[in-house]
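Trying the structure run again after the queue cleared.
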Amino acid sequence: MKPDMSKWLLQWLSDPEAGFGVGVHRFIGRPRSPPPGERMFTFIGYDVLEGAGAQA
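Done. Tokens:
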């Protein structure tokens, strides 16, 4: 007998009416390094996020 995980899984899914969602993709190609000096991400702190929220 397998456990029913559907209720547990549904709590992690976005409501279809929410207007947003989360997905995942898996890259199966050969990894490459970015060109020198380029970034893939720039991380910011809560101070920046809170400042942006105050302007909204």
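The longest helix spans residues 46-55. Worth checking whether this holds up in the mutant runs.
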